[in-house]
Amino acid sequence: MNVLLISMPDVAPIIMHEAAFHMPNLGIASLGANLDARHTVHLIDLVRKRRGLRRYLTRMLLQLRPDLVGLSAMTWQFDTCLKLIRLIKTVLPEVRIVIGGYHATLMYEEIGADPAAQAIDFMIRGEGEAALRGLVNALEDGTGLADIPSLSYRRGDRWVHNPKGALLDLGRLKLPIRDQRRLTRGYHIMNHGAEVIETSRGCTRNCNFCSIRHMYGRAFRPFPIERVLADIDDIYHHRHCRYVFVSDDNFVLAPERVKALCKAIVARRYHSLHFTVQADSVTIARNEEMVRLMARAGFSSLFLGVENVSSKNLQAASKGDIVDASRRAIALCRKYNMMVVAGMIFGFPDDTEAEIVANFRFLKETQVDTAYCQILTPYPKTGIRQALLAQGLVTNPDHFSTYNGMWANVRTRHLSAERLQYLVWYHKQRILGWWDPSPSVRAQGRLWTGIWIYLMRPLMQKMVAHKLRRIGWQGRYRQEIARLGGINRFPDLHD
Fold it and tell me: Boundaries of each B12-binding domain copy (predicted)?
């Protein structure tokens, strides 16, 4: 069978410009790799084809003539997914469509009942390697679908949802596709070529704003260290790539495993290999030896879940009081020259302007390298969504295209959604100011940080100062919101 797997073109430029960070979709790379060898599979990451989507995808569909097209989408990307499906069915009316990813996992019943999704033939819920392999084999062999766990499929005019399957043995998964079957190129972080790996799946934390449990349950499963090293070897020796994003939901949940992995990486003697990971503040704060080994192994950038500096807000998020742990975690990372990207969430029910200011002042005071500032988003099937709906604080319950952290879909008891959106933007500009790369960041990228410091930043400072004199903060905000609002609009996909 001829299979084409596609990831979405939508981006969320919360940290940096939308053109500065394009990563391959690891999900479709793993799904494709674990199909049986008798099938032909190709991958397309549409984040690399954001311009001219219709022309490019039409050409590739006619060239490849797939029997089955799979699309992976998060909740905020699903509107684009439906537009792409309509295009695919226009070009190849007989092709069959399967969707997967977070949105299909969370909302399969709602999707099945939606007339706009009638062109979808199958849905895969949760971990997908075994389910997709079973589906492709069944379609090729003409066998039944009833025994494929985690698969949903049409039977006449109704949907059948098979029972969810058991979690997979990660040690048996093949390495992701990174060869010529991946039809798109040019993945990067700034001016560095970049790839993605995973060393574990799942998270055992209680954060009620997160939907990860719907994918993997409340479980944490590490890949065998030998398998992780083989994955890194593939990226380093065969793809000649030196920047690796680790997609684990929380890389540091098992500190002893992290230490063992770091020691194994050091023993490999990779040269100039850099890793970026995601971690929680408490584990980092309690494990200095782990942080030291991470830095030695090349873990040079860390996304740290600070979340908020209000004890009440942290309690609302089921995080516990982690402010002191966040301070210590940031200090430890700086001690070992690791770049810190601090994740901060705004818009909890009792937030006023004062809480917004306090969060930004914390980021400024602790001297994080940059901040990932999101507005609290009521993602489907999360605990925080139910709480916010019950309090009447969700202002956009149904239109999910803005559910990417950039937009205010909630209000607080003191701030409208529009005021919340503006104040988060305004105080980020006023308090955090212009980005000043730390010495550790400059060491990682002397060329591009030098261009930013000595050329781009002075030029942009002059341009923005002129704009402020002319139109003020509100005028600049309206221009920026208009620009961001158009980032994920693809005119050539409109019917």
Answer: 11-146
Q: What token pair was written down for 467?
A: 């704009």
Residue 141 has pLDDT above 90, yes or no: yes
Q: State percent of the chain over pLDDT 70.
A: 100
Whether the predicted model's global pTM rises above the 0.90 cut: yes
- Residue 145, CA atoms < 13 Å, CB-side half-sphere: 20
191, 17 in Cβ contact below 8 A?
no
pLDDT at 444 over 80: no
> Phi and psi (nearest 5°) for 142?
75, 25
Mean pLDDT of 157-165: 94
Print burial letters for 406-442: b (CB count within 10 Å at least 16), e (below 16). Answer: bbbbbbbeebebeebbbbbbbbbbebbeebebbebbe
Q: Phi then psi for 360, rounded to 5 degrees?
A: -70, -35
**Distance, CA of 357 to CA of 154 (rounded, Å):** 51
- Which residues lie across from 371 on neighbouring strands? 342
The burial class, CB within 10 Å (0-12 / 13-18 / 19+), for 275 is buried
* Of 130 and 215, more confident: 130
340: enclosing H helix or E strand: strand 339-346
Give the per-residue pLDDT at 214.
Answer: 77
**pLDDT confidence of residue 495:** 55
